[in-house]
Amino acid sequence: MISYLEFEKPIAALEARIAELRQTASGGDVDIGAEIRRLEGKSADLIASTYAALTPWQKTQVARHPMRPHFRDFVEHAFSDFMPLGGDRYFGDDQAIIGGFARLGSRRVMLIGHEKGYDTQSRIKHNFGMGKPEGYRKAVRLMELAGRFGLPVVTLVDTSGAFPGVEAEERGQAEAIARSTEACLALPVPMVAAIVGEGGSGGAVALASAERVLMFEHAVYSVISPEGCASILWRTNEKAAKAAEAMKVTAQDLLSLGVIDRIVKEPVGGAHRDPAGAAAALGGAIGEELDQLSGLSREKLRARREERFLRIGEG
Fold first, then answer.
1. Other CB atoms within 10 Å distance of the CB of residue 307
2. Which residues pair with 259 in a beta bridge?
3. Radius of gyration of the chain measured on its C-alpha atoms
4. What's the CATH code, domain 59-311?
5. Domain coordinates of the chain in residue numbers?
């Protein structure tokens, strides 16, 4: 059952009508198959036209959709032989950031990413994808392990930001984020990052400082949420849509600015309508990027990362 967003009300009304007709047709008294097919075609066209013209704020809503595929979905549909590795060897095991060995096709990789959860219980368990210091220190440990074994690193970013609680600050949140960013930049192996939902602030950058950064078509990536920006600039989050427009949070804007390197197309109507298809598209794109990076020396990889981030904002 699809959960419809505010701007999808016309789609919801049309699909509700189709469902009613299907229920009527199941009685077998009246043949309304032609009408159902006509409305299904109209619905598909409406979904396609709506998603072809989303505003930045609407894309933000899509990126946050509760049914959007998360880390566990990508593990299931795009990777295989996932072996999770837990703990930071300092404090504990943060469930907001998950990582371990995996296979992408025939290639072994170190897979690390945010997990938001998919229902109330799992969202609490995974802290809504907001990593704590021990999560970023775990990521550093796994990246260093990947470097020792010569495994490329793949990260899947989907977080509103790092956890802002007092206990996280007490355990060195800022330092942990900085160390994770540093570990990305210093990796002696190829690294590909993908923004699959929300890419929020330093909590995202700490896992996305790679030489190739991919982004889903309807994902968002920004230094602060549109609501947070609006509350600072206009003292109200009611202007979040205006903030999203000004912040250039969309994949299309960020590609033109050089912040990301590639946009991965989503199924029509967003990744939440076809998680398996979205995961397959992402897996294919990551595989192509790793193929291009596989022959580069560690010195060249580090130089490319440095050059990539220094070029952002030029011109």
1. 10
2. none
3. 21
4. 3.90.226.10
5. 6-53, 59-311
